[in-house]
Amino acid sequence: MVRLAVELRNVIKKRHSKTIGPINLELPEGHIIALVGQNGSGKSTLLSMLLKLALPEEGTICWFGSSVEGELPIEIRRSIGYVPESPIHEESHWTPEEAASFRRRWYPDWDQAYFQALLDEFEVPQGIRLGKMSKGERRKFEIAAVLAAGPKLLLLDEPSSGLDPFAWRIMIETLQRYMDERQATIIISTHIVEEVRRLADYIILLHKGKLLGMAEKDALLGAWSEVWVSAADEAELAELAAELPEALELKIQTPGMARMITSRMQDLEKRFSDLGIKKIRSRILDLEEILSLWTMGHRPELADLKRGD
Ligand SMILES: Nc1ncnc2c1ncn2[C@@H]1O[C@H](COP(=O)(O)OP(=O)(O)OP(=O)(O)O)[C@@H](O)[C@H]1O
Q: Among 19, 41, 51, which is best to mutate for testing ligand 1, by the most ligand atoms less than 8 A from CB?
């Protein structure tokens, strides 16, 4: 049976005129889950609710199988690591070493050697105040410090914002290794499709406050194709449309050639040969295009944890 790190049931958060939710989600332990969606879709709000920094108006959230009334108990709070979109000001006058000695007192599993190794690998300058660091240097400190506390659940709000490509690669490898070695659950909000492609086991898509679903990344990759076939004119296009229920967004692209997209390429290929339709070429859509199609309403097959994914 799949163990859940977090479960949300009918969770609704009202933000002025905007409503985030209802959100129903089961987030499995030991996986990396990417939270994607356009600006303002509710990603940061969802992460804040997972820490009880924002409280939903409706619904319930369970952490590691327990729902919690009031504040998060200290043992649950300590098992969650959070890198917010903007760093907290309270630590800005400290050096990395001073901030670490404070955090060390709060997190019993703090691993100083791991913290130091990550600072070295990221080349975070030491001896200067966090508030004086560049955005990327501060981000690297935050990632190192959150991992050193040994969380079971890691909430990362756009963690790579400000990182150079070298640091970005270290971050990707570090998170992957951390998840593999500790069976931790990592929820990462991001706009970077390459990050999703490299890291995510599952993808959650939010759009304008609504949850569009959670899908397995591997099921999404390769799910959609763009296909071009010969079609003389609009009359022939209408015939194609009637004969090819698997084809979506069918239109004449250039004289003599029609373009379509499909999530049922094999069925379509068979139909082409049955009907004598001449395929000119096809290509598999990339993840960015698939997420855009999903946002526009072309829902993929969603993850079904009970099926044992
Ligand atoms: N503290 C707040 N008070 C009122 N409204 C808020 C607050 N925080 C966020 N909102 C609103 O809630 C909606 C969701 O915001 P949120 O920050 O969760 O989106 P996001 O998906 O993380 O966006 P981005 O990609 O830009 O970081 C937005 O319309 C935003 O204006």
A: 41
3-state secondary structure of 51: coil
| Whole-number CA gyration radius for the chain | 23
pTM tops 0.90, yes or no? yes
CA distance 281 to 285: 13
Spatial separation of the C-alpha atoms in residues 199 and 201, rounded to whole Å? 7
* ipTM for the complex shown: 0.96
CA of 37 to the centre of ligand 1 (A): 12
Strand partners, 33: 187, 202
Q: Atom 28 in ligand 1: which residue has the minimum CA distance?
A: 40
Domains of the chain, first to last: 4-220 (3.40.50.300), 225-284 (3.30.70)
pLDDT over 60 (residue 115): yes
Cα–Cα–Cα angle for 119, 122, 124, nearest 5°? 60
Helices then strands (H, E): number in the chain? 11, 14
Phi, psi of 220 (to 5 degrees): -80, -40
**Spatial CB neighbours of 281, under 8 Å, sequence gap ≥ 6:** 227, 228
Nearest atom, ligand 1, residue 37 CA: 21
